[in-house]
């Protein structure tokens, strides 16, 4: 990653917040500076070169904070990322401030790895933007030209979101920053996934592009979670975050291989099953230690490279639980969803349930709960006990059946608390797990 440079502008932050933000910014490698002002009016009068990020603190008494956001966005155009610090009592204004041009928001206090990850992502995002924009910045232009461009920006934004001329549109459709689209890999409810390559053809990657700009914050949250998992061999690496056509685009490492579901359908040896499950436990234990729950663990979201390395995909449904121990959103794939997850109360123990379903399937080649009727499937998960694995596979060790059934307890408090506790129990019962002597072949 290139060294960061430029200026971070803080507006209206209290002394403690300013110190915290300065510490986070100034400890970064590169040549970043911090400018602090008290009001938006002062910010608009400040002559700042190479503006890297704007952080706006909204007060409890601010009637319409979206108007402040709009003033800042109209002044600087679509360029620098804008982060709004929003009091908990002003959450009703979130949609308005995002529509007005804010890129992200945060509810103080500004503590912990999650906030630091979000801040660094916005700095990285601006770095990616600056490598492809023209040398002349918005502020460097003559005053009359800036005024004209601001008027044009407001007008075209209300119509077509800066509609391009046909040649520009073709270029924008082909490139995402410095990445050239090669072929579309997938299409889902939130966006598209593309195989891309750097313009010089030296490196391939995967680009996740939202359908609409209103999904930008969701993609930023996914990027922040991936950043917190950076360095783990079983987590997909995020290369950079860029903004293209007003949309936040995630550029991730490209991994070739087959899904665990495809491998199970083709048949897997016991040793391969055990080693893959240990890798899955390892990355989930790593995530849980960083207060991240995945919420959609299933064989289709697990990729295995030709060398046998597991990669856990699709952290788009993941949740940061540093500020709440549970999630109130119903997200996941039904056969792998825990009872409390169906009810919209996900916890780390909900991931343990999904890990138990995967282990049940590896051990028996069956799912513990299944029905083509979704209502019936949910009723089974909520009310019916699973068939004991040894009734389907009598040669399974009794201790393994006990571990699986504990993962599938209806009451989340009776399960293993997290993936690390499950891994520890499995290792204690089967120190040789991974050698192919515990699970059957398929």
From TrEMBL:
Stored InterPro entries: Atg1-like, CheY-like_superfamily, Kinase-like_dom_sf, Prot_kinase_dom, Protein_kinase_ATP_BS, Ser/Thr_kinase_AS, Sig_transdc_resp-reg_receiver
Family annotation (PROSITE patterns): PROTEIN_KINASE_ATP, PROTEIN_KINASE_DOM, PROTEIN_KINASE_ST, RESPONSE_REGULATORY
One annotated GO molecular function: protein serine/threonine kinase activity
Domain spans labelled Response regulatory: 7-123
CDD domains xrefs: STKc_PknB_like (cd14014)
Keywords per UniProt: ATP-binding, Kinase, Nucleotide-binding, Phosphoprotein, Serine/threonine-protein kinase, Transferase
Official protein name in the record: Serine/threonine protein kinase
Organism: Desulfacinum hydrothermale DSM 13146
């Amino acid at each position: 990653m290139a060294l960061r440079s430029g200026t971070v502008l803080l507006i209206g932050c209290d002394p403690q917040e300013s110190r915290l933000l300065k510490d986070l910014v100034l400890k970064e490698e590169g040549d970043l500076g911090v400018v602090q002002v008290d009001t938006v009016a002062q910010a608009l009068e400040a002559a700042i070169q190479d503006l890297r990020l704007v952080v706006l603190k909204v007060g409890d008494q601010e009637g319409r904070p979206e108007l402040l956001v709009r003033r800042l966005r109209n002044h600087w155009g679509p360029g620098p990322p804008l982060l709004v610090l929003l009091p908990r009592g002003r959450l009703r204004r979130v949609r308005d401030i995002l529509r007005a041009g804010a890129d992200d928001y945060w509810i103080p206090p500004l503590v912990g790895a999650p906030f630091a990850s979000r801040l660094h992502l916005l700095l990285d995002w601006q770095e990616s933007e600056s490598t492809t924009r023209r040398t002349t910045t918005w502020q460097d232009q003559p005053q009359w030209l800036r005024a004209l461009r601001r008027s044009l920006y407001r007008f075209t934004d209300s119509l077509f979101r800066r509609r391009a001329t046909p040649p520009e549109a073709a270029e924008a459709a082909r490139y995402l920053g410095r990445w050239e689209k090669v072929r579309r890999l997938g299409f889902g409810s939130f966006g598209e996934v593309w195989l891309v390559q750097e313009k010089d053809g030296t490196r391939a990657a995967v680009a996740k592009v939202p359908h609409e700009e209103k999904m930008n914050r969701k993609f930023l949250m996914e990027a922040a979670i991936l950043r917190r998992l950076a360095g783990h061999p079983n987590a997909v690496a995020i290369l950079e975050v860029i903004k293209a056509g007003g949309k936040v685009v995630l550029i991730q490492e490209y991994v070739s291989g087959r899904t665990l579901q495809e491998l199970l359908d083709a048949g897997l040896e016991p040793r391969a099953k055990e080693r893959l499950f240990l890798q899955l436990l390892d990355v989930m234990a790593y995530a849980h230690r960083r207060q991240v729950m995945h919420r959609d663990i299933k064989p289709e979201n697990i990729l295995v490279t030709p060398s046998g390395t597991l990669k856990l995909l699709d952290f788009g449904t993941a949740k940061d639980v540093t500020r709440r121990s549970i999630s109130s959103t119903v997200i996941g794939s039904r056969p792998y969803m825990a009872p409390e997850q169906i009810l919209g109360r996900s916890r780390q123990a909900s991931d343990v349930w999904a890990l138990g379903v995967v282990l049940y399937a590896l051990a028996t080649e069956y799912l513990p709960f299944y029905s083509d009727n979704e209502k019936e499937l949910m009723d089974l998960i909520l009310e019916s006990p699973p068939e004991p694995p040894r009734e389907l596979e009598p040669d399974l060790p009794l201790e393994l059946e006990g571990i699986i059934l504990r993962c599938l307890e209806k009451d989340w408090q009776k399960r293993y608390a997290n993936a690390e506790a499950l891994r520890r129990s499995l290792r204690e019962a089967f120190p040789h797990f991974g050698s192919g002597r515990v699970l059957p072949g398929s």
